[in-house]
Every structure is written in C-alpha cells, then in structure tokens.
Please model this.
Amino acid sequence: MAREWTSPGLILIAALAACRTAAPPRITRLPDPTRPPLAGNPLTPAQVDAAQAAVARAEAGDFDGSAASRRSLPPGHPVGALVGLEVRFLKGEKVAGEALGLTKANPGYGSAWAFLALAASGESDLRGALAAARMAASLQPEAGWDRMTREFESGLLASLLAEGKAMLAAGDAQSALSRAREASQVSPDSAAAHLLAVRALLLLKDTRAAAALVPALPDTSEGLELKGQVAEALGQWDLALELYSRLPAEYPRRCELVAAARQGLRRSDAPPYLTRAFAASPVDRKGLAAIIAWEVPVLGKAAGDAVPVFEDVVQLAEGRDIVIVARAGVIPGDAIARRFGPGRVVSPRELGAALQRLAKALGKPAPLFCGDGDHLCLELPEVVNGETAATLVRRVAGGSGEPCAQR
Model:
C-alpha cells in the first residue's frame, strides 16, 4: 500500500521549493553597493537585499524587476544613488561625472569609488580610473580592487609612454618629459619611463637632470647607449667609450658609437685652436689645415719637399699644421708671394680639391663626389664647416670611408 503524504509534509516541500525559486540573484560584474564601508543611515536587511537585487537584475537585463527592487530603498540614500548609477551604466549611459560627485559627497563609500573606477575607464579616463581604483582598494582591501588597480596602472603607463615617444619623435621634448614624469609617478620602477625622461632631457640640453636619472637606467643595450650619451654630453668620453664597449657585438650601432667615443676622447686632448676649427662654420684655411693634420697624423711622414716660409702664418697656433699640409701638397699656398691666406673661407670646390690631393698623398683611391655617377660618393656641403670637413677627411683617409662598413 502506497504511503500517504501528510499535509505538513506537503507544506514543507512547497516551502523549500519556494525558497529555492525565490533566491535573490547575485551581483557578478559591478561593485556590491552594500559592501562596507557604507555611507548614509543604516539600511534594514530587507533594504540591503533590495539594493543587491536591483543591481543583479539589471546585470541580467531585467530592468523592470530592477526598478521594482529600487522602490524599496529610502529616497536620497547614497546606496540608492549608487544603485541608480550602476543600472544606468548597464544601460550604456555615461555616468562617470555623477559617480565622481557621489564619491566627493561620500568620500568613505568604498563601493562608490570602485564603481567610479569602472565608469571612468569606460569613458577612457585612465587617470581618473586609476585614482578611483586606488581609493577603492584602500577602503575595501578584501574586495580585490588591487588587481583592478594594477590593470589601470598598466594601461595608463602604456598610454603615457606611447604619447611621450610620439611627442619626442615630433621634437616636443618638454611634453615628452611631462609624460615621462607622470609615467614615473604611476610606476616608479618603470625603466621605460626613465629612458624616455633621459632622452627628453638630453634633447632639452638639461644634462645635469639627465645625469641624475642615470642610476635608474637599466644595463640593457638601450640603457647602455643612453648612459653613454649622457657621458658624452658631460664631456666624459672615457666613460662613454667604456659604456659603448659593453654593448653586445651584434648591436646595430655599437661600432659607430665606439668609433665616435674614441674620436671624442682623442679630441678632448686637442688644443683650443683645433676645438675652434671643429666648431667653425664656415671653416677657414688655417682651420682646415689643423683638422687635416689632426685627423691624418701620418701625413707628416708623407710630406715631400720643403715649402717656403709663409709670412702670414708665423704667429699662428696653426702654423705647424699649415706647414705639414702644405709640404704634403694637400693645401698649397702662394710660393711667390709667400702667403698662405689662413683666414680665407674654404669653398666647397677648394675642399674637394684638398680631398683629392689628400688621397693622392696617402696613396688612396681618388674620391668620387656626388654627381660623378657613383652611389658611394662624397657630398660636398654648400657651406664648409669644421665637422663636415673632418668627416670627409676621415672618409678619404680611411679608404672605405666608413669605420663600420662591411669589409
């Protein structure tokens, strides 16, 4: 015989089923507006349930049910205000400005700060999102907002660095420096931020400030190159050479940097008149003579016949160099008038002729100038300055013309 269920048993089963079907939905995406610390007067347990149900139903797309739950909340209460903002956010509205106002009116309301972080991020305000996330993490340390904080830090850091690099490439070093400094505030240990700041400072010629950041630079290839550039700017060529020498052999610019540092180190011992010649624009004949004698020290051994004493170079510091290049036939003077013309500006044509005679004196191939139909040509400048002249002299004296060219 089948067992008959009593009325109390049926009532209990129905009650349990009702509890299961009536269980309130749970919030899964947005901050729980009822998580402590709260703001405003205390809510009853029923009001807490209503606030949670309003957000959860909106997350599920049931906005009518959400509105019904919100009617149980006391008017003007901060929790109700946050619930309303979260529902509107789920509908696609921009509410970050109102969320900011809510946090300002209730600075100790943790969930309001967490929601502001999400709303600001949704409106691409990474700065505001990060500040809000940090406040939420401090007010609700157990809620896991520190993970959200790290995500916003990473996003803002990447954005600032990208902006800064673009500004630097466009020549706006001051704005690039501003982005680099903000990036350092977001992430004090960011090597990329320090690298960007040093590059900007070097472009601004603020060598002292750049040097102050050198200890923060990594010993990567990029970091070593940048440290070397700071050393160059400080005139510390020996340190620059040491740093460049530590670059990996396969680093694309290693040879150029090492060669330039060696040249700079050698120039650091140059007499003042030679330093002036390198900086001159345009350069005169006595300056060109000094540059050639300095860049090609073997020229003295290649000198030929004696030359007459030039009456206009006797008291010049460059006198010995002038005698060397004249004796080698690289820059001749006027043997009849016994004058060299040391102060006369060097023309592009005269520089080209001097380079041809230099190659002949050294037993090198005659240089080809652009326009002669060879892609490996020497481009003569419209105005001959000391640095350009020195570069061309090194190319002729070096044979291939480039210290790092493939042999």
Remarks:
- Confidence is low (pLDDT under 50) at residues 1-21.
- Residues 33 and 79 are 6 Å apart (CA to CA).
- The radius of gyration is 38 Å.
- DSSP finds 20 helices and no strands in the chain.
